[in-house]
Amino acid sequence: MAVLEQERQTVRAQAKWVHSSARKARLVTDLIRGRSVPEARTILAFSNRAVAKDVEKVLRSAVANAESRPDLHWLGDDLVVVKAVADEGPTLKRWRARARGRVARIRKRTCHITIELAQSPAAVVAAAERAAAPKRRAPRKKAEPVEAEAKEFEDMTLEEAEAAETDEAPEADEVPIEEEPAAEETEE
């Protein structure tokens, strides 16, 4: 039995040179990996770690990338975090003066945060069902109202029918204008 596995389409976003160590960022990215986007946003909103703000920015960027692609038609709530990685970036070396003319090295570490999103399995199944379902056509308009009008015309005289077809209303020139009675002049 051959199992055909479709390659999943993913959308990714990456933030480079984030001012946090990769070790601290991994604690946050591990929390959201495999979660839906709304769930991941909730986790990041309530996280006490400073790097959670940077991870949340990358997540928002990945969702925007997915929604802006015209060939995918994905919505942010139907996405799942497939991959969330924090890799080490370059380390900035700084020096701090110590006692007796010595120095101590300060390492300002950076990291690169990458998030990949894919459509959730439930959304994939729903899209497949929509594609497989037969397309419905709008019901045709019935001819009953036309037949009812034809029956009305049968009972009318020829002149009444012509007036009803053209919906002739008396024009303004034809309407008699009622004149007010003139006031009687009284002599004083």
Walk me through the structure:
- The chain has 188 residues and is of the alpha+beta class.
- It has a domain at 10-132: Ribosomal protein L22/L17 (Ribosomal Protein L22, Chain A).
- It is built from six helices and five strands; from the N terminus they run βαααββββααα.
- The chain has helices at residues 22-32, 37-45, 51-68, 121-132, 144-155, 158-166, and strands spanning 10-18, 79-88, 92-97, 103-108, 111-119.
- A hairpin with a 5-residue loop joins strand 3 and strand 4 (103-108).
- The radius of gyration is 38 Å and the shape is elongated.
- Mean pLDDT is 83; it is low at 1-5.
What features would you highlight for this structure?
single chain; 188 residues; alpha+beta; Ribosomal Protein L22, Chain A; three-stranded antiparallel β-sheet; two-stranded antiparallel sheet; 6 helices; 5 strands; disordered N terminus
Secondary structure elements and pairings:
Layout (H helix, E strand, L loop, with lengths): L9 E9 L3 H11 L4 H9 L5 H18 L10 E10 L3 E6 L5 E6 L2 E9 L1 H12 L11 H12 L2 H9 L22
Antiparallel strand pairs: 1-5, 2-5, 3-4
